[in-house]
Amino acid sequence: MGSLLFSTCRSCVHWLGFLLVEPVKAPILLTSDCTVPENNNAVVLICHTNADSIEWFFNGTNLGLSEKRKLSEDHRNLTIDPVEREDSGYYQCKVSNPISSAEISLLTFRCLLTNAQFSVVSTNVAEGKDVRLSLRNTPPNVTGYRWFRGESGIPHDLIAGYFILERKFVKGRLYDGRKIVDLDGSLLIRKATREDKGIYTVVAHLPNSVQRVGFGWLDVFEPVKAPILLTSDCTVPENNNAVVLICHTNADSIEWFFNGTNLGLSEKRKLSEDHRNLTIDPVEREDSGYYQCKVSNPISSAEISLLTFRCLLTNAQFSVVSTNVAEGKDVRLSLRNTPPNVTGYRWFRGESGIPHDLIAGYFILERKFVKGRLYDRRKIVDLDGSLLIRKATREDKGIYTVVAHLPNSVQRVGFGWLDVFEPVKAPILLTSDCTVPENNNAVVLICHTNADSIEWFFNGTNLGLSEKRKLSEDHRNLTIDPVEREDSGYYQCKVSNPISSAESWLLELHIQDE
User: Fold this and answer.
1) Which of 57-66, 102-111, 219-228, 297-306 comes out lowest in average pLDDT?
2) Domains of the chain (ranges, CATH numbers)
């Protein structure tokens, strides 16, 4: 039997793990209603817990799953769809972790079957407008209402309440003065904000300490603004190039039109997953025409003029030369295929080209330098239209847009990317263990680095991978399993990014007989 030794034990790291576990708290069992219509509805029971291990019980025995009784992947949600009379009874969840366990009382949630489900009417509203969350199927003889954020219904999440007999308004931790519980139990929210979006829970208090619980959703949308349709160039070479049109919008629903009709997709016309980017590859003469995007959300819609972007076909594409730079160094973003007779340039961060994102500009005839919201003294627009950035930082990384102004109010738009890299530091080669038995154990070598590109070497040549020599997905970890005598030798990792490279010290692996 041999043993495994490393001559560079300063690089060796030994791991000893321990697990901190939060004690389990009594779970809270939630449902949108304990009284649901038979056959016609589904019911979801939620076991609200800080534990990972969850068991469900029905009438005191383990819950049997079926086509209609299903658990979510994390076992927190039980869905019964459809609900039938046989589903009436007592439900319970028991939770645990390696050090403790807890359960909820069997008696709290008994589902009976009637024809009315108490709930909050889910509602959409424009940001800044007033909205009322109304109730559906309110039970008779209600003595009071309490409203909560989220689905827990716990005091910590109370907004406000109103108790009718006492004529008493109560304020909770989340009360902010904009929310009012009315006599009919509805919740009025004045000047809704995006932070008001989410699930709301209402508890209706009935005589004899009976409570009914309802849930609903409020969605708060920013009013849709007219979208901005961008392209790197409206003049592109036929057959040889691709063009990307970008619909810049604050809406989620986007439709594309070509010459006034719905855009037909094909192998060469493709939309990105979010429908914001339309790629035409290759561009052909038939693609010349008028493009438009229409956007909407549940409360508003907008569109961009058909006439703004007409693509003709020539052989020059105006753009920014995408560039890499080391952090702390100066960099110049140059232009490619600059059109003739330019009268000025404006530079923007991102791809929108809107005034809010303006860095700076220079207008040649007026000899006028303009500063935008994103201007800082490190950025200068030169006479040739290039953008000089002094002492680049990681925050400078991203897309840049340049607008070239031509006579007769014509504009040309170009895009490019700046990547700012931290100079690569010499990597440190670590191992999980400095002494392991031959054949019987695995060893892991770790290349600790701030770079993304990693190469491994063994005895001065590129490391050959095999069934026993494997790299992790990010190439940082080399696993040898099992370790054999032939694995003895010198290991090294070399790392790089587009602007620098470095290599680790050699780590020598010995296998010696005991």
Assistant:
1) 102-111
2) 28-113 (2.60.40.10), 119-221 (2.60.40.10), 228-313 (2.60.40.10), 319-421 (2.60.40.10), 428-513 (2.60.40.10)
